[in-house]
């Protein structure tokens, strides 16, 4: 029985805002980079877990990636799909497989290329999700894609919890400050309150800086229980998941609640408290999500979340550094791989000018659907 399971390799492609390689090609490149980082070859891998963006796209990656990537004789091969919670679900699945002896060394990979010639990422995402049932009714009403949906969520949040657009502004400005020192980020342009409020409104109250920056790219990680592999290893200390399965009918809150237990479970497995966490990497497709998760996950020491953010406590130099690479708002949007990759870099001490001093522990979150699926993992730099 393997007791310690670590991330031993990280591979990232360049993050591009232009049409280019297919998700399959990007995934292969990320896998090669991750294996190189772990100082192992393809023959050392006996497990592959694949995640791809939602929607029916002919180019999305699946289990056929194993052949394309040159991985053979695998004992574990699966395509997982829990939307934005999938990355951490892959880590949890890999941890279980290695701990139980089902596999030895597992690669987890996510790749996406929503930006294609003649169509931007917004169009790609707006047409995912189908045309029947609730989604069909939404489309008939002109509610296309995630931006207007999360705009409704933001309005509901302010109505229930208080706060204002200044809270959103503080999140967006903070994300841009972190991204300024991240060479992998796609948006390094400075942002202050004036330029935030001058930005185009996409769906009230969400402006352009409140929305994630989808890219064409891929990230892969190597997970293993073999202590002889890799260097700068990151230990998987605890996992938690929560799936509220919301009905979205009158008489019940349709957006909030149900996520805190995922963080509680992950911390309990790790034997840690929130005060033991050095960096927090949240799934932040929209600025409103950062506010909601900080409050819902209990990360503000009971301080009002709007004031917590506006006081700079999640910003560089703050006491609760959050999304230290710019997150999905200003860094890049590759679903759950965005916060995971940044956590690994921080715990390896590779954050450069944005490095959080003495960071040895991290909380990473994943979020699927419309606050429907929560996942959390606690990471620690291996001794």
UniProtKB/TrEMBL annotation:
A Pfam family hit: Thiolase_C_1
Domain Thiolase C-terminal: 259-381
GO molecular function: acyltransferase activity, transferring groups other than amino-acyl groups
CDD domains linked to this entry: SCP-x_thiolase
InterPro entries noted in UniProt: Thiolase, Thiolase-like, Thiolase_C_2
Matches recorded under Gene3D superfamilies: 3.40.47.10
PANTHER family in alphabetical order: ACETYL-COA C-ACETYLTRANSFERASE, NON-SPECIFIC LIPID-TRANSFER PROTEIN-LIKE 2
Protein name per UniProt: Thiolase
Organism: Mycobacterium paraseoulense
